[in-house]
Every structure is written in structure tokens, then in C-alpha cells.
């Protein structure tokens, strides 16, 4: 779990440079009991804060604390509009809890007269849920969420196809390659704007290039021992960027990325 002391030390170092902070990476942020205190700290430094949740922890107390924390954006993941479809992807999840939490947050935000957090409903479109899109759109409109995001899904072993690939390829990162195989829809180009725009920290302060590095294979440095400024210009980071610009296909995480 991300330690508040490390978080504050890092923010103190980067304030004045950092404008946007997404407090989320491979986990449920609301499981950290100090999470909203960290949001409030970032907010006090005038940094835009955003997070992403499975919305299983939006009870009265948390909703009041969210509104008080200064959180600017909350992305709620909901990948189905019926329990049966929802739990295909969110195994063990409870759709009713998600929907009740979301309703409570929106109602309390309205009561408070605040515009924040902005509520984004995010739906990963898969072959299992794409038929629910019309119903989803009606529900999102009724709820008056600020934005409905329909997101394409990353699939690890896409080459052999997957039931997660939607039949509407407009919602797919992959297209048939012939011989029953699949390939990335977008041609791999030796570029990546992310390498000059931001970085990702794991819960224990390892800096990795982006959120595709889910298992921290490409560690550029450690916040526990180095400043972010130092890591940003360090040799491992420079070499990673050079490799990406010369031949992205040599970097494992970049091979399945539409950037
Ligand atoms: S996987 Fe590679 S190309 Fe994609 S965002 Fe990360 S660093 Fe950039």
C-alpha cells in the first residue's frame, strides 16, 4: 500500500511542475484508509486529482469524505448493465453496490452544490457486453453522469483471438490478420508521447514508464532513494526512450500498445 510519507515527500519535490495526478495503478484506491487524505494533500498543492474505482466502497461516509477531499475526477468502472454480464469481467463484483454508490455520490454532490468530482462512467467494451451498449447509454443519461467513456479492452494473448474481442471492430484494438490470427489494429510506430508527458509510480515507489508495465519490468528508479527529477533524466530512462524511438517492437510492453 502506498505510504503517505513517501507520497508527501514526492509531491513536495514535484510541486510547481506536476499539474495532474491520477491516483490509481493496478488496485482499488479506496482500500487504502489514508487515500482521501493523500487526495486532499495533492489538492492543497493545486494539483488536479483523478482516480479510478470499482465503486464497491461508495457508502455515506466515503461519499462525504470524497466531497470534502477536493477530488476532481472519479472514474467508475462498470462493464455490464446486468449482474450476469457485469460479473463475467468483474468476477465477484456486485453491480447493485456499484449503482447504488454512484447514485449516492451524484445525489450528494448535487445537494452540496459542488461540481467536483467530475464523474466518468467507464465501460470496457468486450464481446460479452457490447450488446448492452444501448441500455447502458440510457442508464448513464438517466443517472446524469458527466461523461460516459466506452473503452477498448487490452487483451494479453490477442493473436489467437478471444471472446473479449467485440464483433464491432470499432471497439477493438485488434483486427483479423488472416489464418484465424489477430493483430493490432494500429501500426506500431517508433514514438510515444507518454515518455515526455508523465510517469507511473508503483505502490512502493518504483518509477515505470507507463501503466502498461503492470508487473514493473522496466524500473527507471526508486522514489525511496532518488528524486523524480533525477529518475526522469537518468540513464535507464534515456535508454528506454532511445530504444522506443529506434525500435519499439523490442520492448515487450510496447508490442501490445496502441499508445
Ligand atoms: S507501452 Fe510503450 S508505447 Fe505504449 S505507452 Fe507505454 S511506453 Fe509508450
UniProtKB/TrEMBL annotation:
This is Radical SAM protein with 4Fe4S-binding SPASM domain. GO terms for molecular function: catalytic activity; iron-sulfur cluster binding; metal ion binding. The keyword Metal-binding applies. Its cofactor is [4Fe-4S] cluster. InterPro entries: 4Fe4S-binding_SPASM_dom, Aldolase_TIM, Radical_SAM_PqqE_MftC-like, rSAM, rSAM_sf. Keywords: Iron, Iron-sulfur, Metal-binding, S-adenosyl-L-methionine. The lineage of its organism: Bacteria, Pseudomonadati, Bacteroidota, Cytophagia, Cytophagales. Residues 192-258 form the 4Fe4S-binding SPASM domain. PANTHER family: PQQA PEPTIDE CYCLASE (PTHR11228:SF7), RADICAL SAM DOMAIN PROTEIN (PTHR11228). Residues 22-139 form the Radical SAM core domain.
